[in-house]
Amino acid sequence: MFSLLRVRFMALAAAVLLLAPAVAYAHPGHDTEPATQNAALLSAVVSLGGGPEHFSGAAFRRALSAPAPGEDQTLRTAIGTATVDRFDDVFTYVVLDGIGTMKRSGKPLPPPSSTDARSVAAALYQAGLHDGAFDVEHLFDTLFSPAVHNHAMVAVGRKYGANGETAYHVVFAHLVQDLGKS
């Protein structure tokens, strides 16, 4: 009996150790040094997307990619039209929810850092760099703050499910890396 219990315990411990890296990589970027929010950059994103009262993820995506003809087709070919369309809906929700959370916390949006699409794309890319590599999780922490980003992930999971969360991460990362690298 003792050896059977010990074997089961060791099997459970091995399973936990094997799964831990998968869980850790599901949302990289959350480490001991939290990102500092850049509200002026978030304000630039909001401005490109139509402003705080009329923000649209689709309008933001089109405005950000305007200097790069064919980016929409490149994105849709690489990721899929359904995922891009889902991004438009989910990113609209995430930004509006993030702005609402900030307002309730007494943190209104400051003036935008820029409204030039190329400058905003480059700033988004730089904000997503973490330990020398681009990390979309770090970018979201920088835009919204780690607490607001975590709230958004839970809210998106409830409203849109895993496909919604994947869409807003994958499309945003692809878009920023395509347009923001110099």
Characterization of the model:
The chain has 182 residues and is mainly α. The chain has one domain. Helix content is 73%, strand content 2%. The protein has a two-stranded antiparallel sheet. β1 and β2 (133-134) form a beta hairpin. The longest helix has 35 residues, at 146-180.
Distance between the termini: 64 Å
Number of continuous helical runs: 8
Low-pLDDT residue intervals, each spanning 5 or more residues: 9-30
Mean pLDDT: 84
Give a count of the beta strands, DSSP E runs of length 2 or more: 2
Proportion of helical residues: over 70%
Measured by DSSP, the beta-strand proportion falls in under 5%
Rg result: 19 Å
Shape: globular
Largest sheet, strands/sense/barrel: 2 strands, antiparallel
How does the helix and strand content classify structurally?
Answer: mainly alpha
Number of domains: 1
Element-by-element helix/strand order: HHHHHHEEHH
- Sheet with most strands: strand arrangement: 1-2
